[in-house]
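Worked problem 6 (solution included).
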Amino acid sequence: MNILFFAIGILIGIIQLLLTKKTVECITGKNNSRLLIFVFIKLAIYACAVSVAYILLRDFFMPLGIGFGAGMIIGAFVNFIVETGKDKSNDKGDDTP
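Solution. The predicted structure is:
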């Protein structure tokens, strides 16, 4: 059962990372209407996950927390690889000095 809740924590961590990325894009793009939506969704998912885990699944709170942290790290690593690949594909056709 610990592995299942660890996997759920990883999934929540990846979702939180993606929402953080979208929130930062809204902040840098001056898109305030979407910013509030992403911040609200991010806080709602986090609050729901933590409250459900703490109230109903106290025995599995530790695997969820560890999975959350691992999901953030895994998501950041995958995001870095994807963004680096996008930059390389954009630079291939540009040989002008």
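Discussion: The two ends are 57 Å apart (CA to CA).
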